[in-house]
Batch of 3 targets.
Target 1
Amino acid sequence: MSLHLTEISLAVAPGAHAAVLMDQAGWHMTDKLDVPANISIIALPAKCPELNPVENIWQFMRENWLSNRVFTSYDNIVDHCCDAWNKLLDQPWHIMTIGRRKWARGS
């Protein structure tokens, strides 16, 4: 997670500051996490996946491409997940719609 935050930090414009939403998974909230100075962590409430847009993306992928199937092997699982991910990437506006919250937008 520290390496991931370092990569995010490098993408933040000089003089800017990033806010990163995280659920309260142990590896997100550990004291061992090295958070760069240009990033603030905003912890989502525990046990509230509906507040995490990433959880909604996973739910969409499961409902549309990954559920109700019998996988025949590990490679078959990876192939289906890669296919689902590529289908998702072909729909950037749909991704934005899934993660949008009317109550979170300004006037």
Target 2
Amino acid sequence: MTSDSAGVVGLVLTSQALRGLGYGVAAVQLGVILRLDGLTSGEVGLMLAAVLVGTLVSSLALARWGDRVGRRRAYAALYGALVCSGTVIALGAPPWLLAVVAMSGALSVEVIESGPFTTLEQVMLASTGRPRRELVRGFGLYNAVAAGAGTAGALLGALPADRRLLGGVLATVGTAGLVLATRLPAGVEVPAVLPGLPRTRMLARSRGPVARLAGLFAVDSLAGGFVVQAYIGYWLSLRYGATTQTIGVTFAALGVLQTASLLAAPVVATRVGLLRTMVFTHLPANLLLAALPFAPGLPGAIVLLMARACLSQMDVPTRQAYVMALVPEEERTAAAAVTNTARYLTRPAGPALAGLILPFGLALPFVIAGVAKTAYDLTLWRIFRSVRLPAEQRSP
């Protein structure tokens, strides 16, 4: 690995750690702050949906113009938006203004997000030129850093809910991210097209497989939208009267388990393959998710969440590596943006619908999510089990 490549990896991992810290605080406190502000369950769901809509819009913009604007410029712009979002939260702005900044694309309702930041970082890591096995390990470490930092963020979020704390952390993370963005080397940008050569259309060679993956990811993301981490924190406080201290410690423990599973995912993928790891670790996690609302009390619910955390995120690094391995290098930005955008095309409907249907049954959001995610896994396996990755076709 060249020194520039090593520098890119270091900067991306540092950036991921900072955001994981901020998003860990947000996952614990955001829903509780909104509830303390007097918002109903439906309004909380709509506010969280606004965050996801912003992620969708910014991801679509990256898919269309990201490489033309420049990856470093787009990266810096996102961190600037995070500074603005944190400032608005800290100042106690009215809900309508909070909804506006929520749509900037810089916020997240989960520690490990799949939005515009991830799109850019996913391509930056793939641009280092490492072999596929090392790339899978890199994505495992990348997501494990987020989970580990999110653990620290969840512990910080265990303090009494305070918008100045949450907003201050997010603004500080955004400022630090701006500094890191200025230190990225030119090598992270897409290779320039030689004069006189036409630009190829987006996803010219891999449109079919990417479109199928995007459709499946959209289904999985819609289901996941019913149970985003910020919503689970809200649900625990509503269903069991859990305090931010309890939620924060629980999310911290979940972060430790997720970190371990993310580091283990590349090892499993090396033995059984990327697709098998994606599907067969996700299926039992879905059953645990559907069982969560039937726990007899808060301790039982926490045990189910911990069991699910051991498996539910193992598909994340393998999914990212799978997409990067499936498409040619010149189409990676578009493929990452399209597949990540697909996850947010339907995701905003999840928390909004969960908030609306919650009065009809506390179990409904979790059962719907578990069933839909199981259908996604089975369909993904059926469609792609016979597809060989280009790297597999070139090597024994």
Target 3
Amino acid sequence: MILDASDHPNMKAARDASLVRLVAYAGKIGAARLVIEQDDSTIKADRRLLFDEVQKAGLSDTVRYDHLRAHEECLLAIPDALAWCWAKRGRWRAAVQRTVVESYRL
């Protein structure tokens, strides 16, 4: 899934919109865990928002979320690579198009 939050006025608004959509998507696909790359400058706000959204979605018994650094979870490199290719457009986007099941403009 690709979340395009480029229309938001700042990085915080874009990140918040992305996290809200991510929680909704986790509920839709029955995910048990969300792993988010840790950014020390946003972790408190992220946790507050994630807690609220998980509660609102009624997922508090089924979905957990963790903030980890890239070296703690090597799979975090995959969404970074996909996002980079998607943002580059053209042949880069075409190269990853088959792996993108859904995309949303936030």
